[in-house]
Amino acid sequence: MEARGLSCAGLSVGYDGSELIAQIELEVRPGRIVTLIGPNGAGKSTILKTLAGYLEPISGAAYVSGKPLGELSSHERALEMSVMLTERLSTELLTCADIVEAGRYPHTGRLGVLDDADRAVVDEAMRLVAVQDLADHDFMHVSDGQRQRVLLARAVCQEPSVLVLDEPTSYLDIKYQIDLLQILRKLAREKQVAIVMSLHELQLARIVSDEVVCIKGPRVFASGTPDEIFVPEVIDELYDLPAGCYDPATGAVSISETRM
Predict the structure, then answer these.
(1) For the residues of 209-236, what is the DSSP string, one character each?
(2) pLDDT tens profile 61-98
(3) Which sign, positive or negative, has the C-alpha torsion 224, 219, 48, 79?
């Protein structure tokens, strides 16, 4: 049986030949959500960019559906994987619908012409993410949160088997954060999409994840189920917090007057 999902073996990542994190072992199976957490600058985005093929690995390899990522053409990669990173997308005179439609281009012919079936997928993705009312709006003139949802709709309508997201809840208020995570759970469960992402919000990561990977220092600090990771001894050390700051019952970090 063909291996599905996203995996890496002995993967070391970094920039310009300089290693940041070494010996990463990761498997994201269909229908599962794996979330990277850790301090700012720990290397979560670097890992995701390497898994997405935007950065060359220092050593090791990533695999999509059992195939080495580096051996796939850009078109083959786009058919398998959709990527949503934190970089701002600059466009000229493109509507939100135009941005979402771009997710269908891997499935169209050389001319990139969408047929009725493609447009139905676009419409469904925009309804799923609740951006259908923005269809005719200039993408550069909507709010950051609305752009984030439009980009998610683009990723959804690409119909990937693997979805890579870097801080997808950025710029979203709590309602849309919850909505987005519910959408991701639906994609994982109903469409059997393998999802790997980074999150800063620990409470959300605990709720949505099947597996959590902690990034700190030159190697993966810890990995496991949410119940295994979201305990004071792991979170306090991961974020260099004073003992007892993290409350696993609420998922919150407390600040006492004696620490200020």
Answers:
(1) -SEEEEEETTEEEEEE-HHHHSSHHHHH
(2) 999 999 999 999 999 999 999 999 876 677 778 999 99
(3) negative
Q: Tell me the C-alpha distance between 216 and 218, whole Å.
A: 7
Place of tokens 């949505």: 208
Q: For the chain, which ranges sit under pLDDT 50? A: 1, 257-260
- All structural domains of the chain, each given as residue ranges with its CATH number in brackets, are 6-229 (3.40.50.300)
Q: Is the pTM of this model over 0.90?
A: yes
Per the listing, tokens 């189920």 go with: 225
Q: Give the tokens for residue 45.
A: 């985005």
Alpha-carbon span 213 to 200, nearest angstrom: 12
Question: H or E segment at 82?
Answer: strand 81-84
Q: Please tell me what DSSP assigns to residue 173.
A: -
Nearest to 200 by CA among 148, 247, 239, 240: 239
